[in-house]
Amino acid sequence: MLQEQLWQQVQLVRAQSPLVHNITNYVVMNNTANALLAAGASPVMAHAHGEVEDMTAIAGALVINIGTLDDYWVKSMELAAARAKALQRPWVLDPVGAGATSYRNEVLRELLKYSPAVIRGNASEILALASIESATKGVDSQHSSEQALDAAKRLSEAVNCVVVVSGAVDYIVQGDRVTAIANGHPLMAKVTGMGCTATAITGAFCATAPQKPYQSAVAAMALMGIAGELAAAKAAGPGSVQQYFLDALYTLDEQTFNSKLQLTIVHAGIPV
Amino acid sequence: MLQEQLWQQVQLVRAQSPLVHNITNYVVMNNTANALLAAGASPVMAHAHGEVEDMTAIAGALVINIGTLDDYWVKSMELAAARAKALQRPWVLDPVGAGATSYRNEVLRELLKYSPAVIRGNASEILALASIESATKGVDSQHSSEQALDAAKRLSEAVNCVVVVSGAVDYIVQGDRVTAIANGHPLMAKVTGMGCTATAITGAFCATAPQKPYQSAVAAMALMGIAGELAAAKAAGPGSVQQYFLDALYTLDEQTFNSKLQLTIVHAGIPV
Amino acid sequence: MLQEQLWQQVQLVRAQSPLVHNITNYVVMNNTANALLAAGASPVMAHAHGEVEDMTAIAGALVINIGTLDDYWVKSMELAAARAKALQRPWVLDPVGAGATSYRNEVLRELLKYSPAVIRGNASEILALASIESATKGVDSQHSSEQALDAAKRLSEAVNCVVVVSGAVDYIVQGDRVTAIANGHPLMAKVTGMGCTATAITGAFCATAPQKPYQSAVAAMALMGIAGELAAAKAAGPGSVQQYFLDALYTLDEQTFNSKLQLTIVHAGIPV
């Protein structure tokens, strides 16, 4: 059963300490590295054209986050994603700011060709990305979560990958299979890079279970949400949340994880 | 009256959550984003030549900080500043390290042409910038605050903008109008990027009151100083200050703000 | 005696607040700047080809860290290192990820030509670097500490510099002179950039004692280890360690430093 395997995945990352190659944005590099370390993984950040493919080849998973992209970095992302695809290494895409500029949309259209295992974004980003994929112009970030869920299903089928829509409730979608995680806390949205961290943690989980991207995404979102709740319960504001979140990622135990977990199987779909 | 309107501006940022476009340095991107979030604003960092103008166009204000500039980023700054000027969107300049190298001085001379609404720097930077603007060579960072104040007045008149000189006392200057904020704490100088954060917060305030750059700068410096005092009162060193500062930005209430505020109108000038 | 001079060096950095020029990686720029400030130094980060030599010329020491290198930054590093060598300004090299890709190895081979005063890395990196220097191919990161120590001695002699091998015990090596510092705590390895911080702090110490790179490296590693122990004793996980570490760097006093110091002279060698 899915729920019982989640804690095993948390333990697997702690035990194997997988190398996760991140090509991510300047704002969150420090957070991302710290969160991966706290969860038990081993982060590496590298983007030089002269080494980016070599780094992907020695890593267990690749994470691409377009937050502060420019032409040099886009080329780095393409080189790494192509190598990951060639090696059948799982990679996770964070489409930060999808829909905000046509430049971002073009870059994302290109990256989708390299078959990410998982895409994680907020409702606006997933709506924008589904719209890009179906060549529809115009993105309304005011769409509801239900509409994001429909977009996630379409995107999942078009790209043949797992799609995570983050929010007050996180939805993990693959075709018509939908799981909801209702953990987390509103203060998390006041700390920059919490979404980017969720994407990186998903990469770590994929690295230790490359054949199980769906379960990896569920486990990662559950871990994020529960660690965020524990942090928010102690915190006096967003500054403290960031610190306590890392502490919680590192110290979380099985009993707390299972007692806090708020998972609902929205639609069982065909288990993958 | 100026003093009574400051808290209203704090509330306006929290209520409207303006999008603030930052082209800033690598060292402080994370702090800056977190401080904008904690103050209620919505940060975006973007610098690709292919999107930087589009991002400025959808933001309420632009913040340019030259801390870790290079040729690519300077071009990004120019593109964004030109677009902000064309759209009459307020933008705020942080002349980090003005006077340290001739490269920085040349870049600043160029950026001043795009009519920033506010310039915020420490005494040495404002002295250097005034010197650049008046084509005088040689900058002595050992000048006194009073001399920085004179330089601020000259710079304000030459560029037709508000100039903020940060220090133990912050001076907000426009022509002969001078307001002093005596809040803050020496430990803030031991946390990297506190000045950069002040500049970014000024951008958020300008975004919600684009016709009132002077009042926005005063409100931003007051908020920074008071949040810093509250943080330092709880802190055991500079590491804790950073965390508690974000908590204070987020939780500060009107009564505390007004009771802590140490504002002096040094010279009333002509209210703008 | 070496041990008695260490606290004097800590005080010297606090008293002189040397300017330390860092060309370092995106992940740790914020930490590095905060740690330098907390230790009493004055950090500057600058990499533009148009100013990097000027910045090195006004700094007391240069720190080069290749963590997130690319071609532009490698050129920056070479320009700065060449200027440092020409001015006989001490510079410290952090060979992050040495051995991971051939691109990194080629860059490191080039940088070694500019005569760093100190090289600091973990066992794998020092083994890789010694291997690069002796033109031997193939690096096994599973080598033991003792083998890293031999590599450190060879590297020190080949490059004519001090070599620091960080780990549970830190070894400071110059030729056959070896000092061991047994301070520190395992939680430090769960915070990104602690090694990079050690390198930057070493730069600050070299800046105030440019003729004493060996003693500077010992003092820096002692300060790092003791501050880390104090932080870990208070911390609930890696998130808190980062904060308390900065607090400890800032507040550490002579009595605590001397009572905590665990220094062993492994081999006296010829004092330099």
What does it look like?
Three copies of one chain form a homotrimer. The first copy, chain A, starts with a helix and ends in a 5-residue tail after the last strand. The first copy, chain A, is α/β, with parallel strands linked by helices and about 270 residues long. Chain A has helices at about 1-15, 30-40, 50-60, 70-85, 100-110, 125-135, 145-160, 195-210, 215-235, 240-250, 255-260; strands at about 20-25, 40-45, 60-65, 90-95, 120, 160-165, 170-175, 175-180, 265. A nine-stranded mixed β-sheet of chain A has the order 2-1-3-4-5-6-7-8-9, sandwiched between helices. Chain A has a single domain, classed as 3-Layer(aba) Sandwich (UDP-N-acetylmuramoyl-L-alanine:D-glutamate ligase). Chain A has eleven helices and nine strands. The relative contact order of chain A is 0.16.
Give a brief description:
The structure is a homotrimer of 272-residue chains. In chain A, 52% of the residues lie in helices and 16% in strands. By secondary structure, the first copy, chain A, is α/β, with parallel strands linked by helices.
